[in-house]
Amino acid sequence: TTAQIGVTGLAVMGSNLARNFARNGYTVAVHNRTASRTHALVKEFGHEGDFIAAESAKDFVAALERPRRLVVMVKAGGPTDAVIEEFAPLLEPGDMIIDGGNAHFADTRRREAALREQGIHFVGAGISGGEEGALNGPSIMPGGPAESYESLGPMLEKISAKAADGAPCVTHVGPDGAGHFVKMVHNGIEYADMQLIGEAYQLLRDVAGYSPAQIAEIFRTWNSGRLDSYLIEITAEVLAHVDTATGKPFVDVVQDQAEQKGTGRWTVQIALDLGVPVSGIAEAVFARSLSGHSALREASRGLAGPKATALSAAEAGAFADRVEQALYASKIVSYTQGFHEIDAARAEYDWDIDLGRVASIWRGGCIIRAAFLDRIRAAYDARPDLPSLLSDETFAQEIAAAQDDWREVLVAATQQGVPTPGFSAALAYYDALRAERLPAALTQGQRDYFGAHTYRRTDREGSFHTLWGGDRSEVEA
Ligand code: NBP
């Protein structure tokens, strides 16, 4: 027998993905650098489907039907290159290497170009949903040559998550690194979502005076409304959890230093290169980094803050409603920024990415899955050339309805000294975009003054310079 697909790299993600293929009726060749993992997988889960265990790279490749489909699920970076180097010489033109790891899209572009020379199709596929998703249905964001999707696509569609309307959460995103780029932005948005939820939690706790258990209830209520999403759902679970050792709320016994693996940081780094303002995502990355500076935080603990005043029970309830509005409006802004980044990459790399389809494949399986994504898809379906999500009439109306509360929440946060970098950055972005005039005109004046960098006028074409050190007359540059 031959296998329709092979998976190499059998740590938690690779094993679960291999089992997912097998459970869906495919014969799966499995391989791992350390063969004991391969045997352990087949021993424990062999009854779930048809596996072919291969110890050597040669046996693994020989077990695959042609064109071969070889999924690589190893640690991103050097290990991925090592695996490609090992397998590429054993493959033939038309074969496919599918990298399901969290690769940087620039690495994917490099690998795709190199393998194309050999006629090998390299498919950089972002996979989201963690281990549970890999097993039961992830959201999959494959890039690479479009023709590889013809035979690979149906298999991915079978193992992927399905949205509420039954549509598989996978599509051919675009050429070379497009899939991993979109996965990267997905993770950046995930950081922003988590930061905004964190700020909402802290406001409910420190301004409204609610307990973690009460806040869990509030999140549960929100989860049955327009904020319905996986992250809101698990937030309620985490907040309701009580530490068995101490009897305290779990959230109070966990060290408040957030870690990160790098995809959020990449989203911001690339956005800087592309010139896209992803201020909400950047604040989320910086908030995690600030939380980890324990010595600096310790040294700053005595700094003066405002005198805090508690809200009455009636005020607290009204405040919670306002926080929901602020959270929703800020969420619209962070998705606006993330989609702007994908749109900018589409222009920069000449990728034909359908933004509505991206929203559509994030509706299930992945960490940011949410009812909200249906709305984004609808916005792009209605107008594929939408300049920004904020230009969508429905979103604009929702923000219009939320903005008074959004501002009130930030007033309260400021007065009570609760940090809200995500909410604040989102509102600043919104106000800056809708502003009639920005102080950028003044910036241009300053640049012209100290560096003769020139400026453009509102009333005439051309570049101009003012003779600041002379008679201050204007010359055409
Ligand atoms: P890890 O990222 O922990 O990688 C472990 C695997 O890489 C093992 O199979 C290991 O083989 C193999 N490997 C290493 Br390390 N160096 C190698 C080399 N030089 N040659 C061959 N194989 C090598 O596994 P994971 O957590 O399952 O994640 C796999 C990929 O999926 C990563 O890129 C990750 O970023 C991505 N991802 C993970 C999640 C998640 O929730 N964990 C979600 C989405 C995406 P060995 O057994 O011989 O040491």
From TrEMBL:
Binding-site positions, NADP(+): G9, L10, A11, V12, M13, G14, N32, R33, T34, V74, K75, A76, N102
Q: Which SMART domains match?
A: 6PGD
Quote the catalytic activity from the record.
6-phospho-D-gluconate + NADP(+) = D-ribulose 5-phosphate + CO2 + NADPH
Q: Which PROSITE patterns match?
A: 6PGD
Q: Where is the 6-phosphogluconate dehydrogenase C-terminal domain?
A: 179-469
Which EC number(s) does UniProt give?
1.1.1.44
What the entry lists under Gene3D superfamilies is as follows: 6-Phosphogluconate Dehydrogenase, domain 3 (1.20.5.320), N-(1-d-carboxylethyl)-l-norvaline Dehydrogenase, domain 2 (1.10.1040.10), NAD(P)-binding Rossmann-like Domain (3.40.50.720)
Q: Which GO terms describe its biological process?
A: D-gluconate metabolic process; pentose-phosphate shunt
**Any one GO molecular function term:** NADP binding
> What domain of life does the UniProt record list for this protein's source?
Bacteria
Enumerate the UniProt keywords alphabetically.
Gluconate utilization, NADP, Oxidoreductase, Pentose shunt
Enumerate the residues binding substrate: N102, S128, G129, G130, H186, N187, Y191, K261, R288, R447, H453
InterPro entries linked: 6-PGluconate_DH-like_C_sf (IPR008927), 6PGD_dom2 (IPR013328), 6PGDH_C (IPR006114), 6PGDH_Gnd/GntZ (IPR006113), 6PGDH_NADP-bd (IPR006115), 6PGdom_BS (IPR006184), NAD(P)-bd_dom_sf (IPR036291), Pgluconate_DH (IPR006183)
Q: In which pathway does it act?
A: Carbohydrate degradation; pentose phosphate pathway; D-ribulose 5-phosphate from D-glucose 6-phosphate (oxidative stage): step 3/3
Please give the name of this protein: 6-phosphogluconate dehydrogenase, decarboxylating
